[in-house]
Write a structure and sequence with these properties.
Layout (H helix, E strand, L loop, with lengths): L10 E5 L2 E2 L5 E4 L5 E2 L11 E5 L2 E5 L8 H8 L5 E4 L15 E5 L19 E3 L12 E3 L19 E4 L2 E7 L7 E7 L1 E4 L4 E5 L7
Parallel strand pairs: 8-9
Antiparallel strand pairs: 1-2, 1-14, 3-4, 3-7, 5-6, 8-13, 10-15, 11-12, 11-15, 12-13
Length: 207
Amino acid sequence: LFRSRGEELERAHVTVGGLAGDRGHVLVDGDGRVLRGRDAPALAGLVAALEGDRLVVRDADGLRLEAEGLAAATGVPGAGTARADDHGAAPGGSAVAPVHLVSVGAEAGPGAEGCDPDPRANVVLDLGAGTDPGAGPETWTGEGEGRPGPGAERGWVGAVLAVGGARLVVTRTPKRCLGVYADVLVAGEVAVGDVVRRLEGGAPTTA
């Protein structure tokens, strides 16, 4: 559900359009108008998850919200959910990129000044602490020395990454968010604990 809290998955399938099922629904008011976070700030406190093909929304206490409960929780009369593609929104990723990568602890890393500390990414990397091991193919598995450290992903613009079975190309840094945006070159499955390999390097740029 766009702009709500998502669920933490052990594994996910990355398609050309982004993570399967990610941001595939939007909040609408009684007239069917798509609502953003600024229209319903309480949306950020709700937790959305797919149970089969059905979207289930719960409040912070885990209570399942049906129509009346959703309206009360968001403060929007007649609030409901709808499929994003029925309203011209791009499902599977953010509004600007299929994949938004961010590292654990990025809010304390380089290039974080002026960024919203609340990450909106759909793929989170554990880059540990240390220095970038340099040019050439690199592998980070979440342990050992030579890991690039939190926030290092903001210097990867132009790089091609292998994450699990997927291949991504880092395209740019967000203006107000942590992490980086990426397009999907090769679809595949990603899972917690997967190796992250930088196949090609790139110079940092900001768009």
